[in-house]
C-alpha cells in the first residue's frame, strides 16, 4: 500500500506541474492484450495488474488531457490484424480508457509494430506533436521491425515520441523493443512487478514537460461562453425495470442515412454518457459485454433527449473446475455460443460476461476433457455456475532405470493412447507432450503411455480417475551412449544381429564426429564413415542406468 501511495502522489505532483504550464502532449496508450498477459506475477495475472495500474494512474489525469486507447490481440487468436483504436484521443477520456481496458479478452498475438504505427497515424504525427505509450509483456510476433519503425516515425513526425514499458520482459528481451523508444527520443522502462508498472505509468502517462519561463505574465484568457445544456443523456438497462448500467458499457453514435441505415461515424462514449448532438437523425448503438442493440432517434434544436435502451440481457458467471471441490482451472477454455452469434466467443478461466437472454451453449475444455451444457439465461438475472469437466491430472517423467536418474535432456517425448484397441488393431492417440514433467489432463479411462528418450521407447499402462493427481515414473531400462569418431562425416548405430538377408537394422545416426543418445540396454554395432567413403566399425554394450563412452578411430 505504501508503494501505491507513493505512485499516486508522484502522479499528482507531475499532473500539478502540467496544469501550471504547457498543455500535455496528445497521447495514445497501446496495451498488449495478447494471450501471454494471462501469465502471473506474484500470483496475480499480468492483465489484472495492468488494468488496476492504468485505473489508478488515470484517476488523477486532468480532464483536458487528450488521451486515446488502442489494444491488440483482444478479439482473435492467431491474427496479426487484430488491432483496434477503442478510444480516440480526446479530452476527458480517462474513465473510458479504464473501462475499455477492463473489457479486453487477452487472447491473441503481438503485432506491436503495426499497432504503434496505427497509433501514430491516429495522432496525425506528421502534423502535430504526439506521443505513443506502448505497454507490452512480449516481443513482436507478426514480423514487424520495431527498430526500423522508430526511425521512420522519427523522421516523418513533427515532434513524435514513443515511450515503451516492458512489463515482465527480461533484460535481453527489453533490448529488442527499447530501440523503438531510443529511435524516437523516448524512454524504455523495465517493469517487473505491480509497483514498478505503476511507477512507469506515472512517468510516461502522467509526466509532462516543465512550463517555459516567460518574461511577462501571460494575458488572462477571455471568459468562456456559457456551455450549452446537455441535450442527449441516454441510459441502458439489462431488462425492463432494472437499474441503469453506468460502467463497462459503451455508446456508438452514427449519423442516420436517408434509408435509415448507419451513416458517418460520430463518436464512441463509455459509461454514463452525457453529450450534445447537433439537430438531425442518429442511430445509437448500446453495448454491454456481448449484448448490443441499436435505436434510431431524431434530435431537434432546443430539445433534451433521455432515451432508455433495454438490452434484454443477463449475466453469466462460469467457474470451470477439473473435478468436484478442485480450484478453478485458469487455463480452461470456456466457449459460449450465445443467441445471435455466428462464431462463439472463447474465454479462459473464471468467466463473467453479459449475454443476450436465451439458451447459452457453454463448452468447457480442460486438457483432453470437454463438457457442454445448455444454460437458460433470463434478462436481468445473474447465473453463477460451476462446470465440472471431470478430469484427472497426470505428470509424466522417464527414468533410465527404476529409482535411477531422471531423463531431463532433449529428445524426450510422451504420447497417450486409449488402452482399448480399435477394430483395426490400432489405438487412438489422445494427447502428446515433450520434455520432462509433461502434464496431461485426461477424462477417466484406461490409457497407454508411450515414453521416448532418443532411441529408447517403452509403453506403460495407467488409469485415470476424476480429481486424481498422479506422477507417472516410467523406467525405460536404458543407458546413454556417447560416441566420438575423429574425422568422421557420419556415425550410425546398428542392431548387431542380421536378418535372414544379412542386413542389420539402423537405429539412429548423426552427420557429425560426435553422437550421443539414450539406448535400450544391449549390444550395438557402431559404424563411422569418412568423406573418402572409408569406414570403421566397433561394438559396444550399453547397460541400463549407466553411461558408455566409445571412441572409433
UniProtKB/TrEMBL annotation:
Record-linked SMART domains: VWA
Naturally occurring in which organism (per UniProt): Mesorhizobium wenxiniae
SUPFAM superfamilies, per database record: vWA-like
Domain of life: Bacteria
Name of this chain's protein: VWFA domain-containing protein
Domain VWFA: start-end pairs: 26-205
Gene3D superfamilies noted in UniProt: von Willebrand factor, type A domain (3.40.50.410)
Pfam families reported in the protein's UniProt record: VWA_2 (PF13519)
InterPro entries: CLCR, VWF_A, vWFA_dom_sf
